[in-house]
Write a structure and sequence with these properties.
Elements: H1 3-31, H2 38-45, H3 49-55, H4 59-84, H5 88-105, H6 111-116, H7 119-142, H8 152-163, H9 172-186
């Protein structure tokens, strides 16, 4: 099989998969998790049910794949923010602010959020994010911008839990204040 043909088939499969993920998430947002069926997804996507089942066994598998794609996109976005910032402290602050703003923007309390924020795949995504933050904290501790009397893993957990509150804040200004308070908790203790 010529390479060009293979790339075309792969691009088609990616396109179909992306359309399935987008359609399923939109249907769940509009109708609720329990109201969406594989038949609806196939019809709205414009593919046959048999084709849909070649890609995914059920609605939950589609939504888990959609969430995995979202998480990957968020990590890539955070990595881009990190890479554009200056020193260790600036990178940490920029990433924590970007994460808090993403948390503030995403919908919470929906059936979709409840589904994707449970199970092993969510725990894996949280670990990946925690390690990403931990590495920034470790780097900032080496430059004395972050306290070193608490393990970086614990500090990463502190940051993620503290910034989860961004989801219920009324404005981006309030989110930025939360980030500043979180960063204050990371500073090295002063002389006693």
């Amino acid at each position: 099989m010529p390479k060009l043909w293979h790339q075309t088939v792969e691009a088609h499969r990616r396109g179909v998969r992306d359309a399935i993920l987008h359609t399923a998430a939109a249907l769940v947002a509009e109708h609720g998790l329990h109201a969406v069926t594989m038949s609806q997804i196939a019809e709205e996507t414009g593919i046959g049910r048999a084709t849909l089942y070649k890609y995914f066994p059920d609605v939950e598998a589609i939504l888990v794949a959609w969430h995995d794609r979202q998480v990957t996109g968020h990590i890539e976005r955070l990595a881009g923010v990190r890479d554009r910032a200056g020193g260790a402290a600036e990178r940490l602050e920029a990433v924590l602010e970007a994460y808090a703003l993403m948390t503030h923007e995403r919908p919470h309390g929906t059936d979709l959020a409840a589904l994707v924020h449970r199970g092993a795949h969510f725990a894996q995504a949280q670990r990946h994010l925690s390690h990403f933050i931990r590495d920034l904290l470790t780097e900032a501790a080496k430059t004395s911008d972050v306290r070193d009397d608490v393990a970086p893993d614990e500090l990463a957990g502190y940051c993620l839990h503290a910034l989860a509150a961004a989801s219920s804040l009324p404005s981006e200004t309030a989110v930025r204040r939360l980030v500043m308070v979180t960063l204050a908790g990371l500073r090295p203790p002063g002389p006693e």
